[in-house]
Amino acid sequence: MKLWSRGLGKQELKMDFMDYDVRREGQEVIISGRITDPVNWDFWIRFDEDDVPGLVRVAKNPSVIAMVGRHWFKKIFLFWRRPEVPEEIVYLGQAPGSILVFWRKQAGYVVVE
């Protein structure tokens, strides 16, 4: 996530919510952490019941729904469509009696030809 304010000029702060602490304190939910790029600032964000309608409004925005849907579609459905890695065959040598021996790395077995 990027954060910008006029006071920052042209700089943007980079935030990663995967690294921050989320806890409940009384009637509030608090997100706290440290922004380290390009500054070194501690921060906290406090949500209470009065903020729920605004959070719901943001969550039901079509742009947000589409972004979340694309993310989960890629995570779930494209898992099965990983690009095939070409199988690497390594020549191990020639066994007695002129038999060629190869190792198929991806499959993990030996081929004797």
Share in β-strands: 35-45%
Low-confidence stretches: 108-113
What is the rounded Rg?
Answer: 27 Å
Count of structural domains: 2
The share of residues in helices is: 10-25%
Continuous helix count: 2
Give the overall shape, derived from the CA principal axes: globular
Q: Mind summarizing the main beta sheet?
A: 3 strands, antiparallel
Q: Give the beta-strand count.
A: 8
Task: Quote the average pLDDT.
Answer: 77
Question: How is the largest sheet built, in terms of strand order?
Answer: 3-4-5
What series of H and E elements makes up the topology? Answer: EEEEEHHEEE
Q: By helix and strand content, what is the structural category?
A: alpha+beta
Description of the structure:
With 113 residues, the protein is of the alpha+beta class. The chain folds into two domains: 2-81, no CATH class; 85-113, no CATH class. Helices cover 20% and strands 36% of the residues. It contains two helices and eight strands. The chain has helices at residues 52-59, 62-76, and strands spanning 2-3, 13-14, 21-25, 28-35, 41-47, 89-95, 99-104, 109-112. The strands form three sheets. A three-stranded antiparallel beta sheet has the order 3-4-5, with no helix packed on it. It has a three-stranded antiparallel beta sheet with strand order 6-7-8, with no helix packed on it. A hairpin with a 2-residue loop joins strand 3 and strand 4. The radius of gyration is 27 Å and the shape is globular. The N and C termini lie far apart (55 Å).
